[in-house]
Specification:
The structure is a homodimer. Chain A has helices at residues 7-10, 16-24, 44-54, 71-83, 98-110, 125-133, 150-160, 181-193, 220-224, 256-270, 275-287, 290-315, 341-351, 383-402; strands at 30-31, 93-97, 116-119, 137-140, 143-144, 147-148, 164-167, 197-201, 233-238, 249-253, 330-334, 353-354, 356-357, 370-374. Chain A is of the alpha/beta class. Chain A has two domains: 7-42 and 292-402, Aspartate Aminotransferase, domain 1, CATH 3.90.1150.10; 44-287, Type I PLP-dependent aspartate aminotransferase-like (Major domain) (Aspartate Aminotransferase, domain 2, 3-Layer(aba) Sandwich). Chain A is globular and about 65 Å long.
């Protein structure tokens, strides 16, 4: 039978990262490609104990739950967010299947085909996939290392009348960059003035390499809530990076009416996410010092980032440069102008190392001489070898250019 | 801020069942309204042991998983379906967050606004909500107790050129009805001839009250796969009713290319569902006799259905009638023509019993003198009291009619 797909299906891109993972399957590859946290740091024992406690309760734990999610966990998330400067009540929170579902559901209730959306470039690939599936008209706001440029933002707010601005302002995927406080304030102010919703995607914000007081960057949501009258920022976070991804528990926070509408969309989408996972996280937050765990993984990721940074710097590749991220999971490497990282990739895989070519993170006009390197998943002792293999691939690439 | 929602959001209905649950909160109500399995029958101990075994493995169990779901569980589902006459390989299966997500994702990849979809009336409420959110043009095929009428089906296939036919042909929600084999064959044949996809939603099929050999109804998917050349049936099932809903694990089976497209949609929607839940189910299927468990709950549900049936019959309400379902979770009660069940509901809640008015299950032209009664969740000893309260509400309703 010939299947006649919807227009949305025709706009579903295949993920470049998945294609890369296929390339690497069954081979002795050191992968800096995946966006994976370090498995060795997962608090497996505490997680196991939490599930055991949850399932030692009565049979009602296995029944259907509320679409909005398990209430005590929503309360705890509200408490944690309030402590981070985002005063919310649990009724302003819906739990989702990872923050990916939060992005999808928000786009579903906000975007009609052709609606304009502003993003940074490069930005989170799977958000671009969602925007494409809703056939949004995606425009890039010019950014520097401190965030979106206010003049360009205002110009594009005027010109495109967007419905949504999407950003990962803290330890971004893919670049690791963090917006300055000044730019954060300016962005919220402009979006409020033009009545444009912001989706602040903050999966990495708590993984900071600076342990000093006040190092935690002020979120757009916190700035927004310091104003009177309505919210323009919708905020999403997840336990995937601070506990573990397999529990698939994220959250979305926003204007109460918007959150009610989003809950209706979630009800149609899947009734609710796993309450066993949500209850286990609620249990975990009671007995386990999550603050200490986050400090522990942040320190270890800092060490791993430094190791990768040192290895890359020591090579002195002509034209290559990068900035050390202050947190998160990724380092963004720019190579010499004449190198196309997508064409470099198969050579690198042949040599035994994988990365994500930077071009996939751009909605348009990609910088092809860039790549995203993950530093959290690869065992530290393999990092020098990974960089060595990358160098071998670069040498082979340059030789081909000369032929 | 004034939020400008998408057209899809404007088409998200609020669930009548949720509104009823709100009515009943905090009161001494016997609810026959929810679509809940009996909590007392959940295999909590076996589930706990399964989670413990999964989480006694190494740290990789907490890492991101495949969008399609945990491979060994897909294999086991393929094995179970093959034993039920649907020969599939695991590559034709995607695991979803309950079968609700399967319905949503299939609609997402198939339906554009205005596309025609054929359904029975009454049919599953949350499927109607999904169809509405994709702005499908929903048409009803006339049915009798054996399923859709072939002449009317063919007429509507010709007239509306639908993209999809949605049905719950076995122990339906809300009616409990089961299609005859002849009608199943005819429906598949006609849809194949007109090139129309069928979504066979089968959450209840294994909960059969007839234990004789061959009592298991032939699924539309099994019939479809007896033809050569392509599949027209997409099939969805779930562990929610045969193990427990909180694990939120369903599956969707279909044409391999369609399943690949659906996996792409799922990737954008939430990356993947909880792998901990999926692994726990995989463990459960190894050590636990699920066939025996399904027989056990089916027998108990049969007893509970008989109890409700006997209580209702013994009342002899004028004009009231119903057919005993042969399986599943629901009994569909038709009252005297002059009774509007939605108007009866607040009186019933006052008396201490709740049900779902039948009208919410119709896309149009509802039969207002109908109601859906769930017989699986209420403790058996409360059923006589529930029916007694329903009678008191009916008496009060009739008295009002007389005033």
């Amino acid at each position: 039978m010939n299947i006649n797909y919807s227009t949305a299906a025709k706009h579903l891109g295949s993920s470049a990262v998945r294609e890369i993972l296929k390339l690497t399957q069954g081979k002795d590859i050191i992968s800096l490609a995946g966006g994976l946290p370090g498995e060795d740091l997962f608090p497996l024992e505490a997680v196991r104990e939490a599930y055991t406690r949850v399932l030692s309760s009565d049979n009602t734990v296995l029944q259907y739950g509320l679409t909005e999610g398990y209430d005590p966990l929503r309360d705890k998330i509200a408490g944690r967010l309030s402590a981070q400067g985002i005063p919310v009540s649990s009724s302003e929170i819906v739990l989702t299947t990872g923050s990916q579902q939060a992005i999808d559901l928000l786009c579903k209730i906000i975007l009609d085909p052709g609606d304009a959306v502003l993003v940074e470039a490069p930005t989170y690939l799977a958000a671009l996939q969602v925007l494409s599936s809703y056939r949004a008209d995606v425009h890039t706001v010019t950014s520097d290392e401190d965030g979106m440029l206010p003049d360009d933002l205002e110009d594009k707010l005027r010109r495109y009348r967007p419905k949504l601005l999407y950003a990962v302002p803290t330890f971004s995927n893919p670049t690791g960059a963090t917006w300055s406080e000044e730019r954060r304030i300016k962005t919220v102010e402009l979006c409020r003035r033009y009545g444009v919703l912001i989706l602040e995607d903050n999966p990495y914000g708590e993984i900071t390499f600076d342990e000093s007081e006040g190092a935690y960057p002020l979120s757009l949501a916190a700035i927004d809530r310091s104003y009177n009258g309505g919210y323009c920022v919708v905020y999403t976070g997840t336990f995937s990076k601070i506990v573990a991804p397999a529990l698939r528990t994220g959250w979305i926070v926003g204007d109460p009416e918007l959150i009610r509408t989003l809950a209706k969309a979630k009800q149609a989408a899947d009734l609710h996410s796993s309450t066993i996972d949500q209850r286990a996280l609620d249990e975990l937050l009671q007995g386990f010092d999550i603050g200490n765990h986050i400090r522990l993984i942040s320190r270890e990721y800092h060490t791993r980032m430094k190791l990768l940074s040192t290895e890359l710097s020591s090579r002195g590749w002509e034209g290559a440069h990068f900035r050390e991220p202050q947190g998160g999971m990724f380092l963004w490497l720019t190579l010499s102008q004449d190198i196309n990282a997508a064409e470099l990739l198969p050579l690198a895989v042949d040599k035994g190392v994988a990365f994500v070519p930077g071009e996939v993170f751009y909605p348009a006009q990609p910088m092809r001489n860039t790549m995203r390197l993950n530093f959290t998943h690869t065992p530290p002792q393999l990092v020098p070898l990974a960089v060595q293999r990358l160098e071998e691939a670069l040498i082979m690439y340059q030789q081909r250019l000369l032929i």
